Amino acid sequence: MVSDAQAQRSIRLVIFGRQGAGKGTQAVELAKHYSIPHISTGDMLRAAVRDGTEFGLKAKEIMDRGELVSDDVMLGMVAERLSLPDAANGWILDGFPRTTQQAEDLRSLLGDAGIDLAIDLNVPEDVVVKRIASRRVCEKCGTNYAAPDINIPTVPCTVEGCGGQAVQRADDTEEAVRKRLALYESQTAPLLDWYHGQGLLVIVDGVGAPTEVQAELVGVIDAAV
Ligand code: AMP
């Protein structure tokens, strides 16, 4: 149950985390907990790609190259999303800002209100590499599994009636993952410094059971907002 106080409280959060840190899962749970929308710019861009719009086609080329969509396009997209009625009482932004320019744009967009908190869901690089390198995805139904050892190539899918085999995604090898993480590091470290400089950054330990991490996040947010 959401209390009246929670329902009326406006909560504006930005969440950062390495790939494999559980950021998406935690952001979805936080959105439910505080009854605010989870706004993922990656999801929005993928939706545009699926819709096959002209913008989606351009975005796909950029995403496939592993590059970033331009700051002004992203700001337009985010500004439009934040102006929708469901975002009136707050939101959790995931994937934006991605550059210091975007952080400054967001600050200008929000004016005095600003954001309440920037959360860095911290899971050390070696832990996420192991998590991702152990990930096996069923070829038939898409269910995710954790292989007991990173050298085990396939895991039988246990979904009733599926009968598929869970295999490693081409971009989940240790080498590919380390490359993506290096990119994340170079893009995000300056942003974390930027929010730290504003007194808005909080680092939450993302290692541990998802329910424990969630409780820690809620505690930190409740104390700050
Ligand atoms: P994500 O799901 O957050 O990893 O985003 C997937 C891809 O979408 C990224 O690799 C970028 O190409 C693009 N993207 C998502 N958010 C942004 C952003 N804030 N600025 C620029 N490009 C973005």
Keywords:
five-stranded parallel sheet, single chain, Rossmann fold, about 15% strand, binds adenosine monophosphate, globular, alpha/beta, four-stranded antiparallel sheet, about 220 residues
Please explain how this structure is put together.
By secondary structure, this protein is of the alpha/beta class. The protein has one domain (4-36, 89-224): Rossmann fold. The protein is built from nine helices and nine strands. The strands form two sheets. Strands 2-3-1-4-9 form a five-stranded parallel sheet, sandwiched between helices. Helix 2 (23-34) packs across helix 9 (210-224), helix 5 (71-82) runs parallel beside helix 6 (100-110) and helix 7 (125-134) packs antiparallel against helix 8. The longest helix is centred in the C-terminal third of the chain and has 24 residues, at 174-197. It is globular and about 55 Å long. The two termini are 19 Å apart. The mean pLDDT is 91. Adenosine monophosphate (AMP) binds at residues 41-42, 45, 62-63, 67-69, 74, 95-96, 98, 102.
Helical amount among residues, as a percent range? 40-55%
The bound ligands are: adenosine monophosphate
- List low-pLDDT spans: none
Cα-to-Cα separation, first versus last residue? 19 Å
What's the quick description here?
Helices cover 49% and strands 17% of the residues.
List the helices and strands and how they pair.
Elements: H1 4-8, E1 11-17, H2 23-34, E2 38-40, H3 41-51, H4 54-64, H5 71-82, E3 90-94, H6 100-110, E4 117-122, H7 125-134, E5 135-138, E6 144-146, E7 155-156, E8 165-167, H8 174-197, E9 201-205, H9 210-224
Helix pairs in contact: 2-9, 3-4, 5-6, 7-8
Bound molecules: adenosine monophosphate (AMP).
